[in-house]
Prior knowledge:
Layout: E1 4-7, E2 10-13, E3 18-24, E4 34-39, E5 45-51, E6 58-60, E7 68-73, E8 78-83, E9 92-98, E10 107-112
Amino acid sequence: EVQLVESGGGLVHSGGSLRLSCAASGCTFRYTSMNWLRQAPGKGFEWVSGISPSGGTTSYARFVKCRFTISRDNAKNTLYLQMNRLKTEDTAVYYCSANSGSRGQGTQVTVSS
């Protein structure tokens, strides 16, 4: 089972940018579709974005489309989420997850007004 560790979260002002990373262990990362999820305070998990094993196909939730970009580097076993034009409602713990079911511990993103 792939192990996942997110990083790159932090505090940013509204309109700012952050880049999240998710480092994966093991040799199956390059064969696995990956996703970013988030959980805002007091709310359930929310799917944000997904990417195919090759990176050739990406998809986004409506609320982040044209602001966030998902990508991956299979040579580095790493998944990314570039987040631009951040809004206060983007405040949440962000998790990377594999279609196989693995999920990281999350990284906090806080957007202040």
